Amino acid sequence: MQLPIAVLVSGSGSNLQAIIDATAADPDYGAAVVIVISDRPGVRGLERAAEAGIPTRVIPWQESADRASFTKAVCDAAEDAGAAALVLAGFMRILTKDAVDRFPNRILNIHPALIPSFPGAHGVRDALAHGVKVTGVTVHFVDEDVDHGPIIAQTAVPVLTGDTEESLHARIQIEEHKLFPEVVKAFAKGRLSVEGNTVVWEGEES
Q1: Active-site hit among 111, 140, 169, 177
Q2: Which residues pair with residue 157 across a beta bridge?
Q3: Dmax over Cα atoms in the chain, in whole Å?
Q4: Is residue 122 among the annotated active site residues?
């Protein structure tokens, strides 16, 4: 049995594509993307979904009265499509606590930094600005705070001499496209549990 998931995007949808490719390559993947939701029209992520035969929905941020009504519309669309979990794949909007209440420990987000370092919309830029030698990617469960919540998995990426935001982000994305599908599969197969603020993978010692 496959876990139905809604994937939320705001742009190119490269992490969405990685998940689509993983589901196509592995009959035992455990998750199925039942809808792709975007906060803006015309983005590549919507095209990727259409090319894969996945239903899409655009809920324009600018047309929402406030964050609460936007969050409700997103959650309603996901539930109407039968989704049991939300996967935020480059989704640039902050959802209210209503989403966490409706999908408790069932919202996954990917962030291009090693949380708790460099949360927010400019994780790659901030890492470069601070002169760190190592940054990376984090997948975590979403809670009420921005880029916060129990950390599921992280991969480190070295910062190289001469790196620009674009070159560093490109190397981070390579790791994102490996890590995110792996985490989504583990989640769909019931291999992740949350104890307090700690995520335990099945087979690991707690």
Answers
A1: 111
A2: 135
A3: 48
A4: no
